[in-house]
Amino acid sequence: ALPAGSIAKLIERHAAIKAVEQPYASFGGRLAEQNDAFYTRVSERLRHKGRAVTLFDYERIVLQAFPDIYKVKCISHTSDASEHAPGSVRLIVVPNLRNKNAVDPLRPRVSKGVLEDILAHVRRHASDFADLHVTNPLYEEITVDFAVAFLPGKDVGFYLKQLEADVIQFLSPWLYDDGADLDFGGRMHRSWILNYIEERDYVDYVTDFKMHHRVDSVLYEDVEEAIATTSSSVLVSAYTHTLVENTLAACSTHHS
Description:
Number of strands: 10
Number of helices: 6
Distance between the termini: 56 Å
Helix content: 25-40%
Strand content: 25-35%
Mean pLDDT: 87
């Protein structure tokens, strides 16, 4: 995808066109195929022969036809309503994380129109007896709240915002690092987050640490470990977290 503002003028000037603007990142384009990509595509084509039979077949057929899709997970015997649905095939698709057009970058979703296009495409390659479903992932939210004491000389207002941004990056690393992957399933232990926070070079110590796990409208409060509830779930950071200054530490500093 070309970032917004990359296209500024026409290749050949036209008197009737005063200006050209590109307010959003591009989509739907493909780079010229390189040798490595060519050999990969041909090898995958020889393997599935244009027929969706195995999980590998479904995933590669979608990725080849839709360049704006970053990742596909195919789950057999699973439908939108049940994790145990014999004869059903569910495709979970994630849009390209490098495309900045995403309305909600913490929970990237594919539009309903694209989901329907993918479903129609897969039906042309799959068995007529397969009950196909194409959906977005189920995003399960992790929230933390705690009191924190910063090292002497650190501005509280600035570092509270910095620490919240660091926590969001730790819980959703794929949003910031092109090399990080968005993983389905998985788990997050509260001690992992706490250890990460305490390792920040501006944090002194943390107290009253709690982690909460939200699945749709259900909130599990103060859990030791958050475990994805379905095979199509992704654990992500909440938009905001509750961070407050440790007032006891502040009073001790002022007293001394």
